[in-house]
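Example record for the data management plan.
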Amino acid sequence: MFANTQNIAEQITVDRQNMYREETFSDLRMATIKRLTPMKTDGTPDNSREVLFIAQTQLLTNAGMLPITCQVEARTLDEAIEKFPDAIENGVKEMIEEAKEIQRQQSSRILVPDARDLGTLQQNLNNPNLGSKIIT
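Corresponding structural encoding:
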């Protein structure tokens, strides 16, 4: 998110040490694999860094299509294709675990009302028009 929409160009920086050439391979059905080749800023390959492979697919759920993206631990495209199903399965398992953790965190939250809210609550409870009263 940009702090000031007037000077967006001043807020954008490109990490010149983290440039990749992206190539996309697809079976035109389920599997999309992206090969990210590390590059130097002069456009030549940076052989000091590893090539990355990213698996992408969409799964049909009761709520509609669910995009899945995860990294595949592979050195070649052939290896990435071979490992694609397991990588997607692990990506789905990780997503489910993350959702469960968020759900656990949300269910264990304790909401503490602000002191001003307590005062308003007491005033409302003592209001005879509302039909309840706090007896102290």
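Summary line stored alongside the record: Residues 5-111 form one domain.
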